[in-house]
Structure formats: C-alpha cells, structure tokens
Amino acid sequence: MSSKEISRRARAGLRIWLALLLMSLASACGDDTRPTEQDYQHMVEVFGGRAQTNEQEPDYGPPTTNSFYLIMRDGVRIAVDVHLPQKIASGQVQELAPAILRPTRYWRAVDLRGPLNRLRGPSLFREFFCRSGYAVVDVDVRGSGASFGLQLHPWSSDEVLDYGEVMDWIVAQPWSNGRIAASGASYVGTAAEFCSILGHPALKAVLPRFSLYDVYTDIAFPGGVFNEWFVRRWGELNNDLDANRLPEESSFLARLAARGVAPVESDGDGPSGRELLAEAVAGHAGNLDIYAASRGVTYRDDIADEAGTDVDGFSPHTYLGETQRNDVAVYAWGGWFDGAYAASLLHRFANLDSPRRAVIGPWNHGGGKHVSPYLDQGKDTDPSPLVQLMEQRRFLDYWLKGHGDMPAQEIVYYTMGEETWKRSPVWPPEGAVMRALRLSPGHSLAWNDTNHVGVDEYVVDFTAGSGPLNRWRTQLSRSDVAYPDRAEADRKLLVYESAPLPADLEITGTPVADLWITSTATDGHFFAYLEDVAPDETVRYLSEGMLRALHRKISDDVPPYVLNGPYHTFLRADGEQLTPGKPARLRFALLPLSALVRQGHRIRLAIAGHDADQFARLPDAEEPIIRVLWGGEHASRLELPIIPR
C-alpha cells in the first residue's frame, strides 16, 4: 500500500468518524437489533457460556427520548438525554428498567438542520438496549456539549461528583429498578470507570471499553515519550466541540446537515433551549487547553498550573482502593492495536479483586475494525457490533436484572496469525514462559549465547515514522490500523533478525526489550519494534515499546499497580540524564500481544530514535549517534512470552 493511499484512507476514516458523530442519521434499527440464531451461536463460540434465543428475549419497543437539565449541588446545569423503552415509558408492560449511564464530552446528541432531524434514528446501542428493557442515560459532562460549567481537566472531581448526582436522580424515577451500570468507550469508558469510585449503592457494574488506566503511560507519555500528535489533535477537537464548532475535518455533508450539539428541549418556561445552549457554550471559554498544559509536563509528578494537578490526579489507577471497596463488577474491552489500551486492560484485570471479566480482540479503537496484520486491512469487525452488544447485555442482565449465569472471571483474547479466539482465567495464560533472543554478530538474534561481544552504530534518522494509520491515531479517528510492509521503513532503523523458525511460535503476553546503549546526546527517545518477516520478505508489524532515556531507572519500590514488565516511576526524583559515551541500560516493556508466527518466518527487532508521525522529537537540534552493545556484561536482548505448543 502506497503512502498516498494510506494518507487518503486516514483522512477518509476521520471524515467518516466525524460524519457519524455529527450526523447520527441512521434510520431506525428495528429488526436489525434482533439477533439471528447464527449470532447467538457466534457469541457462544467467542465468549463461551450459554445463550438465550429471541423467543426468550422480549422486545420492549424502540426508545422514547426526553432531554432536560439537571441542577447540580453547586448550581451548574448538566444536559441529560433519557432514552426509555417505549413499552415501559407508556405503561404497556408493568416492569421497571435498569439504567445504563454514559457521560461524554463529545456531545450527547447532534443538532440536525430542518427535516434531517426527523430522519434521525437511534444508535444501534440505544435501540438494542432499550428493546432489551434498559434505560439509556446520556450526559454532556460539565464544561462540554450543552452543559454549563468548566472543565479544568478531564474527569475532574466535580465532574465525577456529577455522575453520582445523576445516579441519584435515576434511582428516584418511577421507571427505575434501582440498579445502574456505567458504560462507554474512550473518554466515556474512563468516565464509566470513575463512577465505580463513588460507592453509589445503585451502581452494580461498569464496562470501561477501549479506555485508559494510567493517563501518563497509556496515552499522553507512553514510556515517558510525549505523544504529541494525539495530544495536539485531541486538544484541537475538544476546543472545537466545546465552542460548538464543527471540527475542521468535518465533511461537507456533515457541515450541511449539523449545527452543532443538540440543545435541551425547552419546557416553555424561561429561556429557550437554544438560549441556554449559547450561555453554556460561552462559559466553556475557560476550559483547559490540554495541549498547552501537556507541553509543560516531563515527569509523572509535574503539576500543570492550568490543570492544578499532576496526571495521576485524573487517572483511574490512583483510585484503586476506592474501586476495590465498592466491589462493582467490571467488564473491560480492548483491542490489541488500540494504542496502549490493551496494556491498560491487563493492568486493570490484574489489580482488581472484584468480579471482573475482559476481552481483547484484533481491533482498532472502539472495536469497529478487524485489524490483524495477517488479514486484509479494512475487514469488518468480528464478532459484529450486534454480537458484541449481545455479550455486553448478557453480562448486564446478570448484574442488573438477576438473569442468567454469573459471568466467568476470565480474559477472552484473540491470537492473530492463528486467527482464533481463546479464553484464560489468568494472565499471562498458564504455561507462558519468557525466552530471550540475544543480539548477536551480523545484526542477528540468537536463542543461545554466542559468546561474542560487539557493538553496532546507528545515527538517529528523524524522518523515520510509523505512518498515518498507526495504533495511536485510531484513538482519535477510530480509523483502520494499517502498517504496510515494514521492509522500506526498516531501512531507516537499526535491525536485528533471527534465523527462520523451526516450528510455529506463539507469542502471548508482554515482550521486554533489554538494551545496552551509549549516545552522543544526554537524552533521547528509544523505540523497539517487534516484527514478523515472512519467507517472501514481507515484514509485518506486531508490537512496539518506547522509553525516554531520562526515565530509564528501574525502581525497587512497590508500583502503584501490578505491572507486566520493569517498573519505571517517571518521577522527577528518578530522572537521570545520559553521560555521552557511557553505557546505559534501557530495559522496558513492549505493548502486549497474542500472535502466532509461523514456521519458516523470522523474528525481527527494529530500533529507532524517533517516530516522526506521532511523537515529539528529542533532542531537537542534533542527530545523535547511538551505539548498541551486545554480548558479555552488556548482553542486549529481546525477551518474548512464549506459549509452548
């Protein structure tokens, strides 16, 4: 695939995502939400357990929607849309509904022009869950959409307290059965997880999907490296949405169809919904500029003056104790190629002792695309969005309705290359062992110690990059993740390669790069790419890891949560610059994966000093010379988690 084609697909993906966000023009789903017998069978094949049939699933009718403002403890108005099943709202069935809460900062609904508004149908999520007897409650978080107030930083304490007050309102309604779940993807998924720290008695389950666990390492500074492209573009998107502007990338059709965020419905008394919306939007001018604030951060404990906190102040892992005490059931969803969020999911699963379940698929951000590098790119997601919702409903039916079997506590995961779904109650799966490939003469990787000592020199190439459809960009656009044949890109990198594999090799878990280096600079970014080289010389990307040399110290302290790999604190007290020419050890985790590398293929480790498509440059005024040492006391190596076959 050419770079021109990749760029075209990246732009198209962003336009499509924005069109979906801004238009919401899907027609009523109707029978499209009624699963087939094949859907039930596929759900069981992937997720296990037992399945019901359509005959056992009553239809409560499509959603009826009401929008209004709730007044918070400090007088701030929060915009809320409540979608109720028609048969419950009308009293046709004498049954109470559990509720699914979804707090978003990406507009709870879009204001469509003229007759287009009459064509709007409910989203698949709302239609499916309302027909299944659930109320869906969408909320513009404070400082966003049609809500009043300020957002001084994401998931602020005031914002999280608002979630609790919305839950208070829900359980007071005559239609409520007194049980609530919080669910969502990305920002909304993290908001759902924050609901669990409140100790609200009505909250029984949360589904954080495709969402972070640690703001610093999972999205803003993976390995201490500033994720500049994402933070800048995400900040620009938020600034546009908060000002009720359509983002620049919006398609002509979206601009023609949409005004902006939907106002609340007017109650006929006092200011109109549009007048209140204008007042709310004017107040958003004081919101945090996330990109400006992030540029002043190097260490985990740096406090951005504009935000008034360090990143741990709004990271879910910080509140693990509260989450544990409240014993809320958690079902986390993630994708192998969704930034670092598969690692987020595994950290969450390892640290909770409340009822928990997780799934990691061959997915992009949001799970809309199947992006295994061994299959044609752009393949529709598998299982389908409907089957994914069926599995989520099965989990919620148990915790919110008391129906069905207790969900198994396990991780459902997909092995790429083998293209197979698997399940394990522990992670890494039972039997996994770490095996080392040592950097060796002739830019080779060897399973056994060669008793040689050497060094390879590399001048950092600041034009090297991971392309416009990399795993970090899907987190903004929900685009495909596509790494074309990496052979050309690797010519700009320092490459080491194994001999052809004598048998199939399953890599499932978290690889670790252990490198001894010297540099002519006092700091720098180091990237390690794990790749599969086929007999026809096609190079497939499998995973990557990165570390800023300043943060290389490995701490003996107890980490704030269970990690897979070495513990770097990223604290100011542990920062240490390189001494030019002096050997330094860089030991860091790559992102987790599950992939089957076939017999006759080769394992490749490619080392870089920059990713021009995604991350900040360091240093910014010189091209350092890196020397990678191997053998003897400086035995650089790549450690792989292997499942014996």
From TrEMBL:
The protein's matches in Pfam families, at most eight in alphabetical order, are given as: Peptidase_S15, PepX_C
The organism encoding this protein is: Desulfocurvibacter africanus subsp. africanus str. Walvis Bay
Superkingdom of the source species: Bacteria
Q: Which PANTHER family match?
A: COCE_NOND FAMILY, PUTATIVE (AFU_ORTHOLOGUE AFUA_7G00600)-RELATED, PEPTIDASE S9 PROLYL OLIGOPEPTIDASE
Name recorded for this polypeptide: Hydrolase CocE/NonD family protein
InterPro entries per the UniProt record, alphabetical: AB_hydrolase_fold, CocE/Ser_esterase, Galactose-bd-like_sf, Xaa-Pro-like_dom, Xaa-Pro_dipept_C, Xaa-Pro_dipeptidyl-ppase/CocE
Which residue positions does the secretion signal occupy?
A: 1-28
Kindly state which keywords UniProt assigns to this record, in alphabetical order.
Answer: Hydrolase, Signal
Decide whether keyword Isomerase is in the record: no
Q: Which GO terms describe its molecular function?
A: dipeptidyl-peptidase activity
Where does the Xaa-Pro dipeptidyl-peptidase C-terminal domain lie?
393-639
Hydrolase among keywords: yes
